[in-house]
Specification:
By secondary structure, this protein is mostly helical. It has helices at about 5-35, 35-50, 55-70, 80-95, 100-105, 110-115. The structure holds heme C (HEC).
Length: about 120
């Protein structure tokens, strides 16, 4: 391979690597901001359906993460103020270690009726 061509190849490969890295960074930043339907599915199945919220003391860490996802999510149905009130109550109860409050806030039917 002639040296000029080699240099061209090297530059091209380097540029491609930089471009890919840049894309990966943008992608990661995006994911951190926008909560996906898949994440909510995980919250519902591995959190609520698995009844993690029935033992707040034992599951506080993962519940807190799930509550943050919920609060940041924008459901397709129902209005934003209602979502904020419902998810805010869940976040607050978990933060306070308030099991009774969480039982009340994690009302499946009340939320599904409006937002699911
Ligand atoms: C703060 C609101 C809220 C509460 C509380 C809530 N859910 Fe949900 N749930 C939703 C929404 C919204 C969806 C629809 C999924 C979406 O929009 O991405 C959903 C979907 C689901 C699904 C279907 C997941 C799937 O896509 O496969 C299950 C199962 C579920 N919820 C179980 C529960 C159970 C059990 C409880 C109570 C212990 C509960 N949820 C409490 C909002 C809530």
């Amino acid at each position: 391979m002639p040296p000029v061509y080699r240099k061209f190849m090297k530059n091209t490969i380097l540029s491609l690597m930089v471009a890919c890295f840049g894309l990966a960074m943008v992608h990661t930043a995006d994911a951190a901001e926008k909560i996906t339907h898949e994440q909510i599915e995980e919250v519902m199945k591995k959190g609520f359906k698995a009844k993690l919220h029935n033992d707040l003391a034992a599951n506080k860490e993962v519940l807190a993460k799930y509550a943050q996802w919920l609060a940041a999510y924008k459901p397709e149905k129902g209005d934003a103020a209602s979502w904020k009130a419902k998810t805010g109550a869940i976040v607050a109860a978990i933060k306070a270690g308030d099991q009774a409050g969480l039982n009340k806030a994690a009302n499946c039917k009340a939320c599904h009726n409006v937002h699911k």
